[in-house]
Fold this sequence. Notes:
The chain is of the alpha+beta class. It has 2 domains: 23-262, no CATH class; 265-430, Sandwich (Jelly Rolls), CATH 2.60.120. The chain is 21% helix and 28% strand. It has helices spanning 23-36, 39-53, 61-83, 238-262, 412-427, and strands spanning 93-95, 101-103, 106-108, 120-128, 132-138, 146-153, 164-169, 180-186, 196-198, 203-211, 221-228, 273-277, 286-293, 298-304, 311-318, 332-334, 346-351, 360-362, 368-376, 388-395. The strands form 5 sheets. Strands 1-4-10-6-7 form a 5-stranded antiparallel beta sheet. The chain has a 5-stranded antiparallel beta sheet with strand order 12-13-19-15-16. A 4-stranded mixed beta sheet has the order 9-8-5-11, with no helix packed on it.
Amino acid sequence: MANGxxxxxxxxxxPWSNPLITxxxxxxxxxxxxxxxxxxxxxxxxxxxxxxxEDATANTADGAASLDRALDQWLxxxxxxxxxxxxxxxxxxxxxxxxxxxxFGHVFPGGAVAIDNPDNVNRTAALDxxxxxxxxxxxxxxAAAQTSFNVTGAKGGQLRWGxxxxxxxxxxxxTDADGRFSVTLDQTPANGRSNHLQLVDGPLTxxxxxxxxxxxxxxxxxxxxxxxxxELLAQKSEQELAEESAAGLVEFVKYWVAFKNTFWNTPxxxxxxxxxxxxxxxxxxxxxxxxxxxEADEALVITTTSGGAEYTGFQISDAWTISPTPIYxxxxxxxxxxxxxxxxxxxxxxxxxxxxxxxxxxxAGLHDxxxxxxxxxxxADADGAELVKSTRVVKLAELHTALPANSPQADVKLRxxxxxxxxAQHKTRSAKV
Length: 433
């Protein structure tokens, strides 16, 4: 029987009050960097790079310029999934984030997939149906707009897009007066119990997602521990992890290249797909989006409503589905970064140059990429068909024709304030407090 020792620091204990700073996080980041730098993984990277060079995206100017960044983000994501793949010692690891972290004597470069969202703090852990677990948590103050808990199948530690086996959303979580809670994870049915995720046989992934409608909202604090199951698995050496990461890298990259080549059935440029309810993923949200292709004098104008959602956000990515670094540019916007039209709707203006519209989505120089809109914790009576009001490409000189009357505008002072706010608020995620 495995012991019940927690795999992470006790809630609220340790030298740091930031819930994203745990001994396991720092240990796994350093292990990831060591494995990623190994000769075996570097050799596999070149094989994966050759694969990318054969893809049509590599023949575009934007695709060629962003190829190595996308490859390195996928490489780190794959190594993270490999080194954190022990269900007998589960560790929640903060990943699926493209923003470099400079802390604790190293730089963690980020590892992202699938139009990663800078409003999210994603943490993943390896599980297996042979074990039983308890996840203890405490919501931040202020808490994220939505916290979702998803269990999906896992194959060989590979991060995959999969249907949900079990899902919980923050509003279904029973807490005490301080926002503390405990979630059980095992193969028994809930049978009326709250705070339970039913597991199935085989390797699994737990994904916990804090979605912030305001970057000043605090991530949830967690511990995850085994409470029953077989004996601990033998721990793999750094060399074994390097060999395993190298062996799986090309297939991992193939998977995510195929994902970007088939996502939403490869829609025509500058057209909207959805909104679609994420039913297969446990119903934790609604999404819409597509591909953009713009000249320097053009803008893609999308007008939406919030539908009463507690979280809504807009993000872009490059053609490989990796988002630009979000801190210094308005490549994304959430509810607190938006400016409403007089009728309460929101008009996003996607363009290469600042058009003067308040809700500018900066493409970070990209002509070609993806855009995604997300709504989470929608009101019960929200009409999904009404979430997107219009989608239109116009010349910048004619932008006013695509915007509602008296839509909000921006000046240099607003842009400066937005940038400074983004920098200051994002820094709190890795602050040593």
